Amino acid sequence: MPTFDIVSKIDGQTLDNAINTAKKEILNRYDFNGSESTIELDKKTNTVTVVTENDMRMKAIQDAIISRMVKQQLDPKAMDFGKEQYASGNMIRKEIQIKQGIDKEAAKKIVKKIKDSGLKVQASIMDDQVRVQGKKIDDLQAVIQLCRKEDFGQPLQYINMRD
Question: Are 163 and 11 in contact (CB under 8 A)?
Fold first, then answer.
């Protein structure tokens, strides 16, 4: 039976390139002259840590990161902006979590949407991905189109299409 998987993954190297480019852009801006702002990516936990002096600079850094992710063809919906915390002195720290894999709630919504569509396919949740099976490839392609129209709160990719 033809199958494919619905996943949510961000390429680590592309993300690293986007963060490094945003870091260079921020350091070269005039309004950040003399600033002690830092942007660091922890590749093991997929967390971007931003430390800066005030809210205005924090917003500018977030905008730079988002614009660089879009230019690298990464979906900014994969970022989960946490709350701002006060670091030492007058500094503000924010940790931005990069989502990998489909969480259980989003997976349930995807499966429900596929079942409600009336297409003759089976969708099942497997860890952090959704596997879709059907007798016809046309039905599987219709499921992909259906999922692309809907917003599940995180970027989706469709991989491992097999006959």
Answer: no
What is d(CA 78, CA 26) in angstroms, rounded to the nearest whole number? 21
**CB environment 148-160: b (16+ within 10 A), e (fewer):** eeeebebebebee
Side-chain-facing half-sphere of 40: CA atoms under 13 Å: 11
- Rounded-to-integer distance, Cα 89 and Cα 86, Å: 8
**Look-up: residue for tokens 């260079």?**
24
- Buried b vs exposed e over 29-61: b needs ≥16 C-beta within 10 Å? eeebeeeebebebeeeebebbbbbbeeebbebb
Q: Which two tokens stand for residue 94?
A: 């924010």
Its pTM stands at 0.83
Q: How far is CA 25 from the centre of its chain?
A: 21
CA dist 102 and 156 (Å) reads 8
Residue the block writes with tokens 């860890």: 127
Which two structure tokens, joined as six digits, stand for 32?
């950040």
CA distances from 64 to 18, 29, 71, 76, 97 (A): 9, 11, 11, 11, 16
pLDDT per residue as tens digits for the range 86-142: 877 788 999 999 998 998 999 999 999 999 998 899 999 998 999 999 999 999 999
